[in-house]
Amino acid sequence: MARPYRHVAAALVAAAAIVLAGCSGGNSANNSSNNSSSGGTLVVDTAFSLETGDPGRNYVPTGNMVLHAVYDTLLTFQGADSTTPKPDLATMKQNADATEFTFTIQDGRKFSDGTPVTADDVVFSLDRVAGITDSKANFLMAGITVAKVDDKTVKLSTKTPSLQLPAIVTNPSLAIVNSKVVQKNGGTTDDKDAAKTWLDANSAGSGPYTLQSLDLTSQVVLVKNDKYDGDDKPAYDKIVVRNISQSSTQLTNLKGGDSNVAVDLSGDQVKNLGDGFTVNSAPSAETLFLLINQDKNVGGATASPKFAEAVRYALDYDKLLELAGSGSVQATGVIPPMFPGANKSGVKQDLEKAKAALAASGYTGQEIKLQFPNDNPVGGVEFTPVAERVQEQLKAAGINATLAPAPFATEVQPYVKAQEAFSLWYWGPDYADTSSFLPFGPGQKVGLRAGWAAEADASIADLVTKAQNATSVDARNSAFGDYAKAMQESGPFVPLIVPGINLASSTKVAGLEYNVTWTLDLRTLHPAK
Fold first, then answer.
1. Whole-model pTM above 0.85?
2. Is the separation of the CB atoms in 201 and 214 below 8 Å?
3. Nearest-CA neighbor of 243 among 32, 469, 473, 61?
4. Partner of 206 at 20 to 30 A CA spacing, among 158, 470, 482, 524?
5. How many Cα atoms are found within 13 Å in the side-chain-facing hemisphere of 126?
């Protein structure tokens, strides 16, 4: 399956992993010799999507969470912000055409073994990701050339404007590794790279924590990096991230004091936590949407813009939102609300408009199969209840939908291969930038999954190109806004819900914030005063 689609990969890993639903593995908030309020051990429960400790090969959510604490990147996002990259290892300047980005390593930055971070480390790290053929993250480096200017300066160049590049380099997959150490342990910048085994058991980063141990099915143990000289000083001696697949078990562990933080609680679960706990509920960057195939050979009765319009206005979005939980909001378009360019409001139900569009579409009442994965909830939102409510609302507008659920592993291939006429799916960003949602456009990756060629809507295709080629932030954000508005009014996608993310912790832990890339920022967690 073609990249980018990190959430599909995450689901496949989660489905394949041997999960330890209730075992603390000997590390818990209760049996630690130092509790979280004294800076000792912090215990975090989450359902693992974890493949490796090698940042160059990582591209799944738990991997992002863990590796963000171990490795620094050139730039980063602070707290919950996902719009303004800030200096991490380096400061940045760009040219007027947004094709050259010059990074200068900040003074005094060192790896965990005490050696200084240099331009050679940056060049090796980024070229390594680009060259590893088995890396799911190498698409991040597509079209980017890396060159050393001097010992502290590196220039990243692109042939076309790339205002998304600053956001791309915040991704933990593009972390900067100690090149000499990694090369000594099999690291290269081509398909012969063999450093993964070593990096799965060791770390070569400059972040506030180092990797003590990693088990892909049970837990990851991080310990503080005493040589760290960045802004986020390690607040704990040890952080244990455990694989607890069931949110009910995460809740039990948190309430019983066996853990300090739970990552995957539902909106209903956090409502009843009560005193002694902190909850951070926010919209995630994921969007649940309906796909309506415009290829007549696939869609048949659905292959009409008027049919898509009928579906768009047939739905009662407030009623659909009831099936989500705390932090969830109506999707106002293909761009989630926390990103520049997103529509301020979503579509409202209009049954008369829906029925008129349906009549103009040529639909004559035949059964339409609604396909969806039934074993892969997103943000605690189960697909089956959503599909059932969509079915009920469509019927009121005169559309007869038959539900066709299937396991994710069965359903994903026909979705990717554009073989589904009418389906319910989800999408999340590959990096924290609005350009991650341009693939919904005609002729783009997700657009083609809906049989929507570029020539099917040349005006929206032009807006995609305009956003891609913008050389100023204002011009690009304006193009994003025009694109979002046009996609809300037409096209083969009907965005439904942006599920919430619900992080919870004991009140003894402070700094609990959601970030769209690494979900929970382990760096910012610290004992409450």
1. yes
2. yes
3. 61
4. 158
5. 27
Residues present in the chain in total? 529
Q: Would you state the structure tokens that stand for residue 104, as one six-digit string?
A: 């200068």
Residue 152 phi/psi, 5-degree rounding, is -120, 5
> 10-residue block means of pLDDT along the chain (529 residues)?
40 40 54 58 95 96 97 95 94 97 97 97 98 93 97 98 97 98 98 97 97 96 94 94 94 97 92 92 94 96 94 98 93 95 96 96 95 88 96 97 95 96 95 96 97 96 97 97 96 96 96 94 95
Nearest to 347 by CA among 322, 312, 323, 321: 312
CA 166 to chain centre: 17
Contacts of 274 (CB under 8 A, 6+ apart): none
CA distance to 6, 313, 346, 390, 446, per residue, from 352 (Å): 39, 9, 18, 17, 30
Distance CA 397, CA 223 (A): 58
Q: How far is CA 350 from CA 311, 316, 356, in A?
A: 10, 9, 10
